[in-house]
Amino acid sequence: MKNNVLENNGNIELLASWIKESKYTVVLTGAGMSTESGIPDFRSKDGWWKNLDPTTVASTYALENKYDLFRDFYIMRINTLKNCKPHIGHKILADWEKRGLVQCIATQNVDRFHHEAGSKNVYELHGNIRTVKCEDCGANGQLEDFVMKKSCSKCGGRLRPNVVLFGESLPYDDFNNAMEAIRKAELVIVIGTSLQVYPVNQLPYLCKGKKVYINMDVDYHSRNFDMVIKGKAGNTLLDIEKYLTKN
Ligand code: OAD
Ligand code: ZN
């Protein structure tokens, strides 16, 4: 383990100073950013993939061969969002952007909570489940139609969320913009992701500046970061905010 990881572990005050000093900061988020809003992540004990095999519901195979199952899974995910909203951590990140402390967010999350909280520069690396399109003719569709199990109003084809499925490539512009931003970043703060999914899990290492990892479970990746903070996203961001506004 890098010495400075041990020295800097959980040093919120130092992180606040890094945020103030950095001229270009990128935040990379994953499902752990949204669990405090009531949305399960994927690989924790209550995560989606504990009871479901992603390839059976969230893949191009499922879309092509098990459309009913595929649709039921995404209707369930869309319905889960209905009673959930962004938490204090999302709001703090949006506020940091307004104050010039964060330049952009790259997220693997499909819930659009960063937008809802007011963040403007958001790259959606895995798409979103708030909008739908027709798999067959490409036309935009209505989310309500998908949830009501209707077909495409243009061609009668299969509606689907604009989410990246296993077997599909990532949205070109969002991914390239995120890479470019991280390449020039002086500070990258990674929050709430197990960093198990390629290619997003490679992004932090493009940063030539400081890399920070905030997650409930940090053991696996801690050696690759300049600072690790084991904790909840919302609480940790609130703690950092306290130091930022102290003086
Ligand atoms: P994972 O479920 O793999 O990882 C979430 C991480 O967040 C875990 O390491 C948890 O310990 C941590 N965590 C949970 N709650 C937290 C909290 N309140 N505060 C801080 N950390 C917390 O989710 P992702 O890494 O986002 O892809 O998964 C990546 C991709 O895999 C997803 O975008 C999705 C999935 O298959 C697609 O659907 C294409
Ligand atoms: Zn169509």
In helices, the fraction of residues equals 25-40%
* Principal-axes shape call: elongated
Give me the secondary-structure category: alpha/beta
CATH architecture annotation name of the largest domain: 3-Layer(aba) Sandwich
The percent range for strand residues is 15-25%
In the CATH scheme, the class of the largest domain would be Alpha Beta
The DSSP helix count reads 11
> How far from one another are the termini?
33 Å
Radius of gyration: 19 Å
Q: How many strands, what sense, and barrel or not for the largest sheet?
A: 6 strands, parallel
What's the topology here?
Blueprint: H1 3-8, H2 12-21, E1 25-29, H3 48-51, H4 54-57, H5 60-65, H6 67-82, H7 88-98, E2 104-107, H8 113-117, E3 122-124, E4 127-134, E5 140-141, H9 143-147, E6 159-163, H10 172-184, E7 187-191, E8 210-215, E9 227-230, H11 233-244
Parallel strand pairs: 1-2, 1-7, 2-3, 7-8, 8-9
Antiparallel strand pairs: 4-5, 4-6
The structure holds 2'-O-acetyl adenosine-5-diphosphoribose and zinc ion (ZN).
Description:
The protein is of the alpha/beta class and 247 residues long. The protein has two domains: 19-39 and 86-126 and 170-247, TPP-binding domain (Rossmann fold); 43-83 and 129-163, SIR2/SIRT2 'Small Domain' (2-Layer Sandwich), CATH 3.30.1600.10. 37% of the residues lie in helices and 17% in strands. The protein has a six-stranded parallel sheet with strand order 3-2-1-7-8-9, sandwiched between helices. The chain has a three-stranded antiparallel sheet with strand order 5-4-6. The longest helix has 16 residues, at 67-82. The chain binds 2'-O-acetyl adenosine-5-diphosphoribose (OAD) and zinc ion. Residues 30-32, 35-36, 41-44, 47, 54, 58, 108, 126, 164, 192-194, 196-197, 215-217, 232-233 line the site of 2'-O-acetyl adenosine-5-diphosphoribose.
